[in-house]
Amino acid sequence: MCGIVAYLGDKQAYPILIKGLQRLEYRGYDSAGVALIDDELLLYKKQGKVADLEEYLKDKNVKGNIGIAHTRWATHGEPSDINAHPHFSRSKKLAIIHNGIIENYCTLKKELFKRGYTFQSETDTEVLIHLIEDIQINENVELLEAVRIALNQVVGAYAIVIIAKDNPNQLIVARKGSPLVIGVGEKEFFVASDATPIVEHTTNVVYLNEEEIAVLNRNGDIKLINIKNQKKTPYIEKLELNLHEIEKDGYAHFMLKEIHEQPRSIRDTMRGRINSSRNILSLGGITDYERRLINAKRIIIVACGTSWHAGLVGEYLFEDLARIPVEVEYASEFRYRNPIINEDDVVIAISQSGETADTLAAIELAKSKGATIIGICNVVGSSIARATHAGSYTHAGPEIGVASTKAFTAQVTILTMMALMISFKKGVITKSKYHQLLGEIELIPEKVEKVLKTENKIKGIAEEFINSRNFLYLGRGYNFPVALEGALKLKEISYIHAEGYPAAEMKHGPIALIDAEMPVVVVATKKGIYEKVISNIMEVKARKGKIIAVVTEGDVAVKALADYIIEIPETEELLVPLVATIPLQLLSYYIAVMRGCDVDKPRNLAKSVTVE
Ligand code: F6R
Predict the structure, then answer these.
(1) Distance (Å, rounded) from C-alpha 494 to C-alpha 214?
(2) Are 193 and 159 a contacting pair, CB within 8 Å?
(3) Which residues have CB under 6 Å of ligand 1?
(4) pTM of this prediction?
(5) 424 phi and psi, to 5 degrees?
(6) Alpha-helix residue ranges (DSSP H) falling in 31-103
(7) Which atom from ligand 1 is nearest to the alpha carbon of 359?
(8) What are the catalytic residues?
(9) d(CA 588, CA 28)
(10) Using one digit for the tens of pLDDT, what is the confidence trace for 297-313?
C-alpha cells in the first residue's frame, strides 16, 4: 500500500523518481506526488495515476538532484490533490512521504492543534511532519533527533522519507512495519518501498530493519541508528532481481504475462527441491523444523485473500497425505478472536508480498504462545519471511499485476511438496505412492503449458459473458478452493459479482439465484466426487443456468450437459488445483479486458496490504 521513492546524487532526480513511481504503481494508484529541492523546496501532487502527475508536470520546474515521490492508496482521507503526498511541514521547510498508518494520529493532532497548528489535509502523515518540526524547533535539536523523538511517540506503521530545504545534501529515512530498501550507488542513494525502482541503477542494497533510521549523505555516507538511539551498522546485500522480470515483455498486461509465466514459475518453485528419478524431495529452508511438522498435533494455516485459498488447498493436502489436522484461518479473524494456540502447533503463514499486516500480526500472536511458525513467501527478505522461524520461498519472481496468479500456483506447489515430504517422513504413505506423486508433480509445468494453449477458446467463452452481472463458481474437494479463487479473480478485476461455493452447498441457498441469466462455472474434473458434481450440474441445467465446465481431457458426461467446455490434462486429484486454476485466471482476465477494466490496477485495490 503506497509506493515511496527517493533519490539523492548527481543526476536529475525527477526522471528517476517518476520511473520509480511507475514501477511501484501496483502498490497504490489513487494519487501521486513529488517534491524536489532546486534552491526552493518544490512540491507537486495530483489525484489520479502516475501518468496524470506526469502530464501535470509537463511544463513545471522539476529540476533538482534530490527528491522524494509517492503513489498513494488512501487510508486517511479520500483520494484528492490535497491528501496526496508529499506533505509540507508548517514552515514548508520539510517535506515527507509515508507508507503505513499512524494509529494515534488523532491524539497527536489534538495536541498540535492546541499549539496552534492547522492542517491542510486529512492525513495522518501531515500530523507526523508537523510533530517533527515542532520538536525540532521547541527542543532545538537537529532534524535526525527530532525524527527520532517523534517516532518514539508514534503508534503504528511507517516507512518515511524526509527532505529539508535547508539541507539539500541529506535524506532521512525510517521504517517500522512497512517495507523500505535503500539502493547504494557511487555517491548516490535510491530509496524505495521495494527493489523494483532500484534494480536498474544498482544491485547493492540495504534493507532497513524495524525501528531503524538512516541518514543518507551526498558524500556517500550512511549513518544508521535505531529509535532508541543505538548505533547500527548498515549491511549491504546484493539484489537478485532481473530487469526483465519487472517488465511486461511484450504482453498487454503484467497479469497476462504472469499467467503465462506459470510453467516457468512452477518449475522455479520446484528447482533443486524435487527429483523423482532419485526419489528426492527436500525443502532446505525448513529442514531444522521438519520434526516439528512431523510431530505436530495440529497445523494452523494463516493467510489472506488468494493466499488463504492456497491455504485451503493446503488443508486438503496435509489432511489427505500426512493425516495431520489442519485449520485454515483468515489472519484478520485469527488475530482478534483469542484463539487457542499450543506449543506443539505449527503455524504456516502464507503471503506473496510477505508484508500483509494481518498475517504479520497473526504470526506475532502465535509466536508469543510458543507455536512454531513456518512461512511461505514470495518476496525474499520481506517482513513475514523474517518474522517466521523457518520457511520456503516460492521463487515465483516478482508479481506485479495486482490480482495474484503465479504466486497462487507457486504457494500450492510448496504446500504440495511440504505435505508429501512430511507424509513420507512420517511413514503414512508408501514409497511407491511417494515416487509416483513426485513424478506427477514434475509433469505439472507441461500440463499448465497445455492449458495455456487453449487461451483462444477461453477468450471466445469470455466474450459471451462480458455483460453478465453475477457468476457462480462451484467445485468439490480439491476443486472447492479452485472455485473460490476463480470467483475472487473475476470480481476483483472485472467488478462482476461472483461467488464460489462447494458444489453441494448450492442447494442450501444459492440455487435460488439460478436462472437463464446466471453463468455457473463448474470445476468438474474426473476422480473424486465427479458423479456427484454431475448431479449438481443437472440441478443448474434444470433451472436454465448456463454451464461453463472445466473438465478432464476426454470427458464425455459433462460435455453432454455443459454449454461451454474447457479441457485440462488429467493429473492426480491432489494436483488438479495447479492445473484447473489456469483457465479460470484466463477467463477472468479476458472478461475484464473486454469490459474495459484496468486489470493490472483494479479499482480500490493494492498489491501489498500493509494496513489492517
Ligand atoms: C487477490 C490478491 C489478494 C492477496 C491478499 C494477501 O488476487 O492478490 O487477495 O492474496 O491481499 O496478500 P499476500 O499474499 O501478499 O499476503
Answers:
(1) 42
(2) yes
(3) 304-307, 351-353, 356, 359, 403-404, 488, 492, 608-609
(4) 0.88
(5) -70, -45
(6) 50-56
(7) 16
(8) 2, 607
(9) 21
(10) 999 999 999 999 999 99
